[in-house]
Amino acid sequence: MRQPARLEALLEALRCLPGVGAKSAQRMAFHLLSRDRAGGLRLAEALRAALEGLGECERCRNFAEEALCPLCADPRRDAELLCVVEQPADVLALEQAGEYRGLYFVLHGRLSPLDGIGPEELGLDRLAARLAQTPPRELILATGTTVEGEATAHHVAELAREAGVAVSRIAYGVPLGGELDLVDSHTLSLALNQRKAL
Amino acid sequence: MRQPARLEALLEALRCLPGVGAKSAQRMAFHLLSRDRAGGLRLAEALRAALEGLGECERCRNFAEEALCPLCADPRRDAELLCVVEQPADVLALEQAGEYRGLYFVLHGRLSPLDGIGPEELGLDRLAARLAQTPPRELILATGTTVEGEATAHHVAELAREAGVAVSRIAYGVPLGGELDLVDSHTLSLALNQRKAL
Question: What pTM did the predictor assign?
C-alpha cells in the first residue's frame, strides 16, 4: 500500500532499534502519531541531543558529556580498584548490584579479529598507559564467557601482569535463587569443576 | 547510578514508545550510542518530519501529508464503497489482505463517553456530511468487537440508514488455518450461533 512518504520514512527509521521489526515499527509510529505527538517530539530531540552530545569518557570510555563521566569524576570512588567490562550496560548492571565502589574501564566490545576488532578498537593501548601511569591495586576482569570474551580477558590479564598489577576475575557459577534444573549444562559443569571445599 | 543527563533524558524519552520499559529503553539507547549513531540521527529526523508534516486526510482522516491521503487521491479506487475502521493500522491490514478496492473512513478511536470520546471526536459529523453529499452505494463496518466497538458500529449504521445508504458488516467467526481448540470460547459461540445452512 502507498503510505505517505514521511510515514514510510519513519517506519523504516524505527527499524534501526534493536528488536523492532515491521510490525513493532508500525505500532510505534501509529501510537506516536495518533496519541502522543508531544512524546514523539521529545524523543526526537532527546535522540539528537544524546547522539550529538555524548562522547566517551577519556579515562574509562563510558558515555560522557564532559571529558570525564560522572563515575570517574566522583572523588568518593576507590581509584585503587579498576573493573574491566565489555559494555556500558555492564557498568549499569554492576552499579545496580551496589557492591562495587571502584572505577571502570569499558572496552566497547571484545577481541574479534574476523570483525576487525583488535586491541586498538578496544582502547587497550589507553588501558596499558593508564596501568603504567596510575596503577590500581587490583584489576578485576568482568568480561563475558564467550570465546571472544575469554580471549579478551586473557589479553587484558597479560597487560596487567606486565604492569605489575594484581588481576582477579569475577566468579562464574550457578546464579542465586533459581532451580538447579533450569541452569544450563555448561554452567553446571563449571560449577562442579570449580567447587570449593567447606 | 548517576548517568550523564542527556543519556537519562534519552532513556526517559524512549519509554513513550508502546511496549518499551526501562530495560528495553536501555538496550535501545546503548545500541544506538555504541553501534548505530547514523541510524539514531536518521530516526530523530524522521520522527520530527513525520510528527510535524503528517496531518489528517480531509476526506478519510487517515494520516496524510497533503490535503488528501494517497488512497483518497487515487482515481482507481471505487468511491461507491466506504469502509469505516477504528485505526490507521486497520486500513493497512485491510490493504495487505488485497481484497478491498473502495475507500475508507478512519474514526481514530471508538465511542467511549467516560474517556470523553463522543461522536465529534470520531469525526462522525464529517462522515454524516459525506454520506449526504456523495453517498456511496454501500457502507462497510469494520470496527472491533469490544463493547465500545459495537456501540460505535451501531451509531455509524444509524447515520448510514438516515442517509439512505446500505450498510454491511465484515464477517466475524473462526479464523482460517488454525486449530479449533485454540480459538477463544466467545468466538466459537458466535461462530455456532451464526452458522450457515449448506
Answer: 0.81
